[in-house]
Amino acid sequence: MTATAYYSVCSPTDPLAVARREVRRAEYLSWRACLPDDEDGHRDWTTHAATLTASIGGTPRFIAAHLDALTTVNMLPGLRTLVEQMHHLDMFHLRKIDDALLDLPTGLREDEFFWDTLDEVLVDYLTPTRANQLLPTPGAITRKIRGVIRSLAQEEDTEEDVEDSASDSFRQYDHADGSVTTEVRLDAINAAAVEQAVRDYAAEHDCSFAQAFTALLLNNVQIKVVLNVYRAHDVPDAPGWLYPAGWLSPDCTRRAARMAATVRDMDEAATAHTGSYRPTGTIRAFVEGRDGTCRWPGCTRSAVSAQKDHRVNHRDGGPTTPANLACLCQHHHNRKSGGQAFYVLDPATGEVFWLFEDGRWVCDDAEGPLAPKQRRWVQSLAQRRARRAERARKRRAPSTSPKETAPTGPPPF
Ligand SMILES: [Zn+2]
């Protein structure tokens, strides 16, 4: 972090940001004061929650959710130090971090290596690198944590999870107005195929996603689905990334790799160019893979369903190339076209600098699998896995013979 790097929610020159940071700090410290300290760790929880309810209001469940979040932060000492220095994350963000760890495979919960890795990843991810940078959304933080879990989960855990979910994967429940919600739990690859089939059918027939889903299921419609799986070619065993699940488990990555019909080089795609207004499939794949979501500050709509905005209009000479294209959902594309905001895109980093009518500005980081910080994470992941394998190998190794432990350096005289 440089001296001039800070999140916009901690901006020293924005009075609203300054006031809200104080609120976050006070809230954090007051919840911390509620946490039983070590001497009181044995105290009966029911009594403790009852006394807290009397002091601060809220149900025991509400109180427990906040205290659980802080207990999780205690497992992540680097993150705790960062939060207590910057007060950039509010209790909602901290609860989301705790929620993302709820279905942690048992093997990882007890794994010190996992917690060390997660702590490193979150400190890197939640440390600003630019002035007035947008704070990652709770959803983006959740996806980051799930990526770490999937990439480090033992394969047997991953397969077990798939079986568990498959055994209870279809349910329906009704609503007061007589409609019924149908919920299906699928693995990442099938979910991606269903999502794209529904989206394509809805676009082609100008109908809602629910209507498209029903038509596809009941009318025996044949539809061709093309899925873009992103995977680093220069990192051994790199995890794949597929919308909407995000980072894939090793098992899903292997399955996706076996299914791939075409391989496209995204390094080359970064500078691809077409004379037409419509981007080619390769250019679209790059821009979606770089942006991850709509680039409007705080918008979480996926890049896949977003429009590809020519930053400099095509009719004004703006080329159709990734350096001049950014993903904007329909709603925010209208705002940009209406002139309420203007942006500059750094093609080297994928960062977008937004400038608003009132003179405010903010820096938005790219979140897709091709964004430089995600690539860095994949590379460091490979190094961590190697370190973990080395630790495991040492643990498994039989006790070494005196000959093997003999010093190999020069004699001490
Ligand atoms: Zn948007």
From TrEMBL:
It comes from the Bacteria. It holds the Pfam family HNH. CDD domains: HNHc. GO terms for molecular function: endonuclease activity; nucleic acid binding; zinc ion binding. Residues 374-413 are annotated as: Disordered. Residues 384-397 have a biased composition (Basic residues). Residues 282-334 form the HNH nuclease domain. This is HNH nuclease domain-containing protein. It comes from Corynebacterium maris DSM 45190. The lineage of its organism: Bacteria, Bacillati, Actinomycetota, Actinomycetes, Mycobacteriales.
